[in-house]
Specification:
It comes from Dyadobacter endophyticus. It holds the Pfam family FecR. This is FecR family protein. By secondary structure, the chain is of the alpha+beta class. The chain has 3 domains: 125 residues, no CATH class; 141 residues, Jelly Rolls, CATH 2.60.120; 72 residues, Phage tail protein beta-alpha-beta fold (3-Layer(bab) Sandwich). The chain is 31% helix and 30% strand. It is built from 9 helices and 18 strands. Strands 1, 2, 3, 4, 5, 6, 7, 8, 9, 10, 11, 12 and 13 form a 13-stranded mixed beta sheet that branches. A 3-stranded mixed beta sheet has the order 15-18-17, covered by helices on one side. It has a two-stranded antiparallel ribbon with strand order 14-16. The longest helix is centred in the first third of the chain and has 33 residues. The protein is globular, with a radius of gyration of 27 Å. About 18% of the residues have low confidence.
């Protein structure tokens, strides 16, 4: 998807665009987050998108893809049927014939419009997909906060600090798709007819109904999916040719996708390390200095300013479990013995 090319598109251009039709038909799920991001950034295009959506669904109502040339022919036929009447001067000996021709053209236009309206409404009624379903909803948890959400299907989500999630106002009949950046715990309402699919960059997690945690902060070197109950399918893109690795997880199992190595590994996980954040536990396991600072910034909603003279050994690692502890307490543990001094001023932490 080349997002910039859509900035000047009208509804006719969208109808004829392969990527747009693939998005509507659900045949290119890897681009869903790109379309959602573009729609959020270009709200003025929604009327044109809505017109194009109705036309595409009118052409696709039989459930089969329509080739590009057929769509263009259908569009030209529809466009010509509602065009202005012929402005050429009629010959004197054919007034009745031209008048009848205009009547037939108007009737044809009315039939096409009424037919398209009927087919669109028939499609929407059958699939229960109102216009608002295609407008993404986005929720964010700012640094220093956590948010609890209930999705349209009853699924419960807890967003960790510095995370965001987007999804349609109403899920489709056969699939429930969401996009996640950051970390969240999902308690998914079971629906065997509509899988629940979470996209997090190169990793796609698919379930029918279960509870699990996904950690996928963009700056992290790994994406982790930890299952609490039920079964989960995890797909990850690996290699330069968009190859996929796939694993199935059960209770107490975790999949870790190493971004740089392109490896998908299954292991047993420490519940406090992966899910303790929901209960106010801040967990560090051999965390380097940079990763520790980032985690503290998200958790406490602060910004660190590190003086040039503060240097940590490259092999320095920080481990610990902190239950509802203030930032001063953790900084005291980190700085021991006299590694640095610190001062907290509102939301700024100075390390010297």
């Amino acid at each position: 998807m080349e997002a910039h090319k859509y900035d000047r598109f009208g509804y006719k251009d969208f109808v004829l665009d392969d990527d747009f039709r693939a998005w509507l038909n659900g045949t290119a799920p890897e681009n869903d987050h790109l379309w959602e991001k573009w729609l959020l950034a270009n709200p003025s295009h929604r009327p044109e998108i809505e017109k194009a959506r109705k036309i595409v669904y009118a052409l696709h109502f039989q459930g089969r893809p329509v080739p590009s040339y057929d769509i263009e022919q259908q569009w030209k036929r529809l466009e010509s049927s509602i065009a202005a009447p012929d402005v050429r001067s009629p010959s004197v000996d054919q007034p009745r014939r031209i008048a009848l021709r205009r009547v037939f053209r108007l009737l044809a236009a009315a039939c096409v419009l009424v037919g398209a309206f009927f087919l669109v409404n028939r499609y929407l009624a059958y699939h229960h997909a109102p216009a608002s379903a295609f407008v993404p909803v986005e929720h964010k948890a700012a640094n220093g906060q956590q948010r609890k959400l209930v999705l349209p299907d009853g699924t419960r989500v807890t967003l960790n600090a510095g995370s965001s999630i987007s999804y349609p106002e109403e899920f489709e009949e056969k699939i429930r798709k969401v996009s996640l950046s950051g970390e969240a715990f999902f308690d998914v309402t079971r629906n065997e007819k509509a899988p629940f699919v979470i996209t997090t960059g190169e990793v796609v997690t698919k379930v029918l109904g279960t509870s699990f945690n996904i950690r996928a902060y963009p700056e992290n070197k790994a994406v982790q999916v930890a299952v609490v109950e039920g079964k989960v399918k995890v797909n990850a893109k690996i290699g330069s040719e968009d190859q996929n690795a796939c694993v199935f997880l059960s209770k107490s199992e975790m999949a870790t996708f190493q971004k740089e190595a392109g490896e998908l590994i299954v292991s047993i996980y420490d519940e406090k390390e992966q899910i303790g954040w929901k209960d106010g536990m801040l967990y560090f396991q051999k965390s380097d200095f940079h990763s520790t600072i980032l985690k503290l910034e998200r958790w406490y909603g602060v910004k660190f300013e590190v003086a040039p003279g503060v240097r940590m050994d490259t092999d320095w690692r920080f481990s610990g479990k902190f239950q509802d502890k203030p930032l001063d307490y953790i900084l005291g543990v980190m700085s021991y013995p006299n590694r640095f001094s610190y001062k907290v001023n509102n939301s700024i932490v100075n390390l010297q």
